[in-house]
Amino acid sequence: MPVLPPAAGVAYAGGWPAQQLQIGDPMSAHEAKFQVGQIVHHKLFDYIGVIFDIDPIFQGTDEWYEHVARSQPPKDKPWYHVLVHNAAHTTYVAEQNLEPAETPQQIMHPFVERLFGAFDGEQYALRRRTN
Predict the structure, then answer these.
(1) Across residues 47-63, what is the average pLDDT?
(2) Which of 53, 47, 57 is CA-nearest to residue 98?
(3) Is the CB of residue 33 less than 8 Å from the CB of residue 43?
């Protein structure tokens, strides 16, 4: 899997450090409610972002889960990597805590241009990788 180069000044809060951002093969649409490029709203923390990767089940550590995922969402459902709007960090969010954004908008984040191409007013198109 390719690793994205870190952006200057990128920090993280409850998500993955910038140095570890990887683009995996997206899950098939029938296994997850949301898709890569979709603009979502976090129900608990009231922010929007764009999904850039999906894990079919929780892939973090037990320590992270106990300290960060305080609502104890299910580990056996999809978890999403999200670029947070107007921030330089990412978050790792359980499916139950996300919903489609009511009014999708372009996301301001240092990695958007590295990962995505055009925004069609609803979602982003994933940028094609070249080897």
Answers:
(1) 96
(2) 47
(3) no
Question: In which band, very low, low, confident or very high, does the pLDDT at 1 lie, cut at 50, 70 and 90?
Answer: very low
Residues of the chain above pLDDT 70, percent: 76
What single DSSP character describes residue 124?
E
- Segment 16-41, tens digit of pLDDT: 443 344 445 554 444 899 999 999 99
- DSSP symbol at 117: E
* Tokens linked to 105: 């908008």
- pLDDT band per the 50, 70, 90 thresholds, residue 70: confident
Non-local CB neighbours of 78 within 8 Å, separated by 6+ positions = 27, 31, 32, 33, 34, 54, 55, 56, 57, 95
Count of all residues that appear for the chain in the document: 131
End-to-end CA distance of the chain: 11
CA-to-CA dists, residue 57 to 9, 23, 27, 87, angstroms:
30, 16, 11, 25
CA-closest candidate to residue 64, choices 94, 35, 84, 88: 94
18-126 topology per CATH? SH3 type barrels. (2.30.30)
Give the CA angle between residues 107, 113, 116 to the nearest 5°. 80
